[in-house]
Every structure is written in C-alpha cells, then in structure tokens.
Amino acid sequence: MRSCVLLSSYALPTSPLTIVPAGSPKNIQVTYVSDTSARVSWDEIEPGLRNGQITMYQVRYQDKDNSIDLRADNTSETSIILEELTPGARYFIQVVAFTSAGAGPTSYRQSYNSIQTSESSTIPLSPPNTS
Fold first, then answer.
1. Residue 17 CA to chain centroid, in angstroms?
2. Average pLDDT of the residues of the chain
C-alpha cells in the first residue's frame, strides 16, 4: 500500500491581525466648562490590550432619567467637550475604544451633575425690595 502526502503553500499575513480592543478606557474624568458643557477625559488603553491601533473613541452619555436619547460623540483624542447639556441635570457617561475591527468593551459608568448657575436658572428670583 502506498501513502501520499499532499503539501500546499499558503501566504502568511504580512501585518499583525487586528481585533477589537480587549480593554476599556480608564480614569474617566468629567470637568465643568460651562452650564451647558463639560470636558470628558480618560487614559489610553494599556498597550497590551489595544489589539491594534485605536482608530476612534466614542463617548456615550445620557441623562439620569433617560429623558433624552443616548448620545454619542466620536473623537481620535483622549478628551472631548460635550455640549448642549441641560443645566442642573445628572448625566451618565461611558467611553469605548475602536480599532478597525470594531468596538472594545465599554468603560465603567461615570456620573456628572451639570451645574445650574443663577444665570442659567429658569426659576425666577424673588423681586428686589422696592419699599
């Protein structure tokens, strides 16, 4: 009996395989900019968890009462300014990183209470004493 071994040739990929990030952005910080805007910043994903080049970050946010639809703003930086926030509202904010293969895990949820100053208040102040 004779046996035969078939050998084939194939090309190996010349660039590393890109998959979605295995980690999420850490150290999410939200700071006041104005009554209707806030800066969100975060630390990059550890190099060993990136699984390729990070092409974009997406910041997802929604008010505490879910009275607005979930919003998402995209950036290639590690910070972004969220605008058109409702003064006095509480928001939940998360960040997710993307490679060309797609989205990684979402960060932990950070809360932020937008500031409502007297200038942005819709509640009338008591009239001045005119007597």
1. 24
2. 82
